[in-house]
Amino acid sequence: MQDLIVNLKNEPGSLAALGEALGNAGINVEGVCGMADANGGAGEVHILVQSAQMVMTALEEAGMSGGSDREVEVVSIVDQPGEMGRHLRKIADAGVNVDLVYLATSTRLVLGSADIEGLRAALHGGR
User: Fold this and answer.
1) DSSP letter string over 67-94?
2) How far, in Å, CA of 23 to CA of 14, rounded?
3) Which of 47, 86, 106, 118 has the highest local Cβ count within 10 Å?
4) What is the pLDDT averaged over residues 66-78?
């Protein structure tokens, strides 16, 4: 899976335009997280998709621009107290830093790290 950053103006309709552009292109957003600049400037939206390239094309066709993308690990978790901490403890004990986290559809935890292979090994064994 890929996490793609899209920078948007912090104004009414920006998120709607993003959603419409992706929907019109038949792209399913499997997870999303966003936050606006505290001073009312731009907003940064992370979207979880199968193909960042498809998203970039859809955004360009809609007159929008996408930012950087990267591979992330998506883990199915149980919706109960302590579940996120249990998974993150494995990663921390392996000495891997997580620099991105959000929840996606179907109770899945999205995790990013500069050491994606170390993150995967910590969660799933190996390395």
Assistant:
1) --EEE-EEEE--SSTTHHHHHHHHHHHT
2) 14
3) 47
4) 94
- Three-state DSSP at 97 gives coil
pLDDT tens-digit series, residues 75-114 = 999 999 999 999 999 999 999 999 999 999 998 889 999 9
Provide the whole-model pTM. 0.86
CATH class label, 2-70: alpha beta
The string of DSSP letters for 30-72 reads -EEEEEE-TTS-EEEEEEEES-HHHHHHHHHHTT-----EEE-
Cα(48)–Cα(1) distance, rounded to whole angstroms?
7
Spell out the residues 6+ positions from residue 59 whose beta carbon is closer than 8 angstroms to its own: 6, 18, 21, 65, 66
- Which has the closest alpha carbon to 24: 68, 54, 66? 54
